[in-house]
Amino acid sequence: MAKKQRIKNEDPSINFRLSPEMKKWVINEAISKNVTVSNYLRNHLEKFIDGTLYDEFNQSDDHLPFLKSIEFLQLITFVFSKRENSKCTSTQEQLSEYIKTIKQMSNEDLPSKIISEFDKVLMDLIKVKNENKKLSYVHFEFCKTSYLDTSFKYKLLEKYLLNEVKAIPQYFIYS
Prior knowledge:
By secondary structure, the chain is mostly helical. Helices cover 52% and strands 0% of the residues. The chain is elongated.
C-alpha cells in the first residue's frame, strides 16, 4: 500500500448529512479510536474504496458460527416444514443429525427462550426415532396446536431470526 499523503486545509472537502443516531455513533467511534471524526471517516472511506474494509468485514464475520452452519439451516428448514405436514418424512440418519444439532445449542448461540422451544422438538425427535413403528406412519407432535399449547412457538423463532440476530459485525451497527 502506498504511503498516505498528509491532508492539507486547502485540499477539497465533501459535506454530507447523517441521521442524529449515526452522527452520535461516528463521534463515539472516533473518540474510542482517539482520532478526529474526519480521520475516522476518511480512513473508512479509503478502506472501502481499496477493498480492505470488505476484507476486515469478512475476517470479523466469525461470530455466530452456529447460526450460520448448514446443520442449523437444515434444522430450521425441517422445523418450519412440519408446519405444513407433521408426517415424518426423514430417515433415521436425518433424525439423528437434527438431534445432534439441537444438543449443540448453547446460550451463546441462542437465547434460552428459543432453546426451550427446540427442547420440544428434541423430545419429539427422540420419541419418534426410538419408536418401533415405520417412520412413514409417525407424526410429530411439536408442530401441532393443542389446548395445552405445548406446540413449537414459530412466531417467537421468526421474530428472533428476522429481528434480533445481529449478523453484521458491531462496528457496522450504528443504532
